[in-house]
Design goal:
It is a single chain. This protein is of the alpha/beta class. The protein is built from 15 helices and 13 strands. The chain has an eight-stranded mixed β-sheet, sandwiched between helices. The protein has a five-stranded parallel β-sheet with strand order 9-13-12-10-11. The radius of gyration is 23 Å and the shape is globular.
Length: 373
């Protein structure tokens, strides 16, 4: 693509770099990149790719903006809470750079749509936050021959690399099998340092620009690790596993699979049993012998109150504190959090250890509504 006069001016700081120049900028304008996930990692990555002049950016995210996102997801504004992320992100990117064509996918990535979507792009950027989708992105990239620019964050730690390159490793080479449900807590449970996704997302954008222009040394065969508490970066070598089931010498995976089942998750639509606050209160007033477990953080319990007699075990401590619930085996356990979100993960963790579990529907807020005069 030949540049216009206004583009020569817009991208002037790139053009004077011998490593990019006119030829490199034209490659950027011709490039097509899709971001899977438009949250903490996707926000800075998308903005810098649009600013750099990437010609087509695909934005895939089925979620809506939540006020809790704004601590780190800098694509969005307070007045956009409740609106679709992909659409709001597209609006922001077009305002940043009208040269960029933005394609939105307000849906989840699945085994049914991944190959068709990836076929339209040169590079895939994995900005997701769960293992099932990471394995899906990886496998679809390997099968379609597309680079997978990977990043992840948790608490104060981040990592990034590039998978799926010729002779390079894939995600399965580094993580052959997913962790069991309950072994790893999510960012919503364990937290994430707000500026950390910005750092890792910018690394991902950097690798995309390098892949497109052919400049520099890419993060292939190298996993970059960041500890934000000490601001120390380090890297480890990651080699292709010759026995990898999808990119190894004797591959056994030739098509996409059910990744929720592969990761030990319930099929879509399956859920943990729930109980309303009114029903729980009635049971407790009539000799119920079950146990109520509060999986919030201590500060939430101190700030907002709690259900009398409930046991406080924060969700990110459940795996290490199962022994505290051994006396509840064979009895019903009702798990609750503030609004019913973290308790879902807590209930699933307990289910993996054979406990009979139900969720307090709508969380502690509903309990207050029922019990407050």
């Amino acid at each position: 693509m030949r540049m216009s006069d206004s583009q020569y001016y817009r991208y002037g700081r790139h053009l004077v770099l011998p490593e990019i120049g006119v030829a490199g900028q034209e490659k950027l304008l011709d490039a097509k990149v899709v971001l899977i996930g438009n949250g903490g990692l996707g926000s800075p990555c998308a903005m810098y790719l649009a600013a750099a002049g990437v010609g087509t950016i695909g934005l895939m995210d089925f979620d809506v903006v939540d006020i809790s996102n704004l601590q780190r997801q800098v694509l969005y504004q307070t007045d956009q809470v409740g609106k679709p992320k992909a659409a709001m992100a597209a609006h922001r990117l077009k305002a940043l750079n009208p040269d960029t064509r933005v394609v939105t996918y307000e849906e989840a990535l699945t085994s049914q749509n991944a190959m068709d979507i990836f076929a339209d792009y040169d590079i895939v950027v994995d900005c997701t936050d769960n293992f099932a989708t990471r394995y899906l992105v990886n496998d679809a990239c390997v099968l379609s021959g597309k680079p997978d620019v990977y990043g992840s964050v948790f608490r104060f730690d981040g990592q990034a690399t590039v998978f799926g390159m010729p002779d390079g490793p894939c995600y399965r080479c580094l993580f052959p099998v997913p962790p069991q449900p309950g072994e790893v807590v999510t960012c919503s449970e364990g937290g994430v340092f707000g500026v950390l996704p910005g750092l890792i997302g910018v690394v991902q954008a950097t690798e995309v620009v390098k892949l497109i222009t052919g400049m520099g040394e890419g993060l292939v065969n190298r996993l970059l690790l960041l500890d934000a508490t000490s601001m120390r970066w380090r890297e480890i070598n990651v080699e292709r596993n010759p026995d990898c089931p999808i990119c190894g010498q004797h591959r056994t995976i030739h098509e996409l699979m059910d990744y929720r089942s592969f990761c030990g998750m319930k099929p879509n639509g399956a859920s943990v049993a729930s109980i309303s606050a009114a029903s729980l209160l009635e049971r407790m007033n009539n000799g119920w012998d079950g146990v109520v477990v509060d999986v919030r953080e201590p500060f939430e319990r101190d700030r907002d109150g709690f259900i009398g007699g409930s046991r406080l075990i924060p969700v990110n401590e459940l795996v290490d504190r199962f022994h505290e619930l051994e006396d509840a085996r064979g009895r019903e356990i009702v798990v609750y959090c503030q609004n019913g979100v973290c308790s879902i993960n807590g209930a699933k963790i307990l289910q993996t250890r054979g406990f009979e579990v139900a969720l307090l529907d709508k969380g502690f807020g509903d309990w207050l509504a029922v019990t407050t005069p």
